[in-house]
Design goal:
The chain is 58% helix and 0% strand. By secondary structure, it is mostly helical.
């Protein structure tokens, strides 16, 4: 079980770096000179909303894999260590008696 956990961590880090790189390589919607002056974009035939290219598809798939590995890491961590509670530390504190009225 531990080897699977470490494998998913390594895969998650690789996908993180890949996702960062793919997003940084993409060109903005109005990155040309016409976009600076409010134009519809001169580099595409149908304006700034052209068909998805390879980089946008890679971004989509990398984001899907990123989300799946994130959920997988949470599931594997909870299975290996057991459930945790936020109020776990408050149950161990001693309970004091309430103050007596009238004083």
């Amino acid at each position: 079980m531990q080897i699977l956990f470490y494998f998913v961590i390594v895969l998650h880090v690789i996908v993180c770096f890949f996702l960062i790189g793919v997003v940084l390589l993409q060109q903005g919607r109005s990155a040309d000179l016409a976009g600076a002056f409010g134009g519809q974009g001169s580099q595409t035939a149908f304006g700034p909303r052209a068909a998805a290219n390879v980089l946008t598809k890679l971004t989509t798939w990398a984001a899907i894999v990123f989300m799946c590995t994130s959920i997988g890491l949470v599931v594997l961590f909870v299975r290996s260590t057991g459930p945790h509670s936020v109020t776990e530390s408050t149950h161990s504190a001693p309970v004091s008696a309430p103050a007596k009225p009238g004083k």
